[in-house]
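Box 3.1 A note on notation
Throughout this textbook, protein chains are presented in two layers. The first layer is the amino acid sequence; the second is a C-alpha cell string describing backbone geometry. Keep the layers aligned when reading.
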Amino acid sequence: MGFMAALKGSMALNAHNKGDLKKAKKLYEEAIAGGLLSARPMLGYAILLIREGSYEQAMDLLIKTQKAPDLTPDRKSQLFVDYAACCAKTGKLDKGVRLLEKQHAKAPTGLTYQTLGYLYVEQIATAVRPVATEETVVMIPGEVEGMETPAEGLSVAEKQTLLDEQWEAYKAKAFKLLEDSIEYDDEDPVCLDNMAQYHYRVLGDKAAAKPWFDKAHEEKPTQIDSLWFLSRYDLDAGDKAAAIEKLETAVEGRFSPLNYADKAMIEAELKRLKG
C-alpha cells in the first residue's frame, strides 16, 4: 500500500466523520484504486456503501478487508456484522446468520449479540413454517456440522413431527441467544428491542412484548423500531396523537439496513394517520 493511498484513506475517514459523504466516497474510491489495505478506512467505506444501498459492492469490499494487516478482533466483528447485514438485504439472510453465528461463537461482543439477535427474529418471523409431504426429505443433523443425513422410511406424519421439533429447537436456540444478550448487557436498547420483537413478531404475544419495548424506549427514546412498535400499542388504545408523536420522532432517526421499520414505511404511516 502506497503513501498516497494511506493518506487518501485517512482524508476519507475525516470527511466521512464530518458528514461530507460525497467527498468521502471520492477519496475512498481513489484510496482503494491506489491499493489501500487498511481495515479502518475500508470498514468506513463499507458502511457508507451499505447506507446508500450498494450492498453487493460493500460485500466485495468486506471480503478484501479480511486481508488487512490491522484487522483487530473488534474490527473483524464489525466486518462480519456488516457482511451479515448485506446478506440480509440481498436475499441471503440464512447465509448471513450462519457466518455471524461462527464469528459470535469465536468472539461474542455487544455488536454481534445485537445483530445476530435481530437476524434470528427476522429469519424466524418471515419464514414459512415447513409442512411435510410425501416428497419432503427431512435431514437429521449429525455430530459434525454439514454431515446431515436423510431420515428414510418415514410417514408424512412422522416427517412433520421431525420438522416441528427442528422448528421449535431453532426458535429455542434464538431465544437463548436473546436471553444471553440481555444477561451480557441488560441496558442495551437494541438487545431489549430484539427480545420485544421476538415476543411480538415470532410468538405473537403483544402483552409480553410491551414491557421489553418500554424498557428499550426508556434506555434510548429515539430508537426507531421501538418507537414504531410502541406506536402500534398507541393505535390499539385509540391514541392517534401519541402514535403520531412517536412516529415523528422515529422518522428523524438514523436508519440502518437492520431496522424493521424503514423511513418510507414510517413516512407512509404518518401520511395515513394525518389523513
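The first strand starts at residue 139 and ends at 140. Residues 13 and 41 are 6 Å apart (CA to CA).
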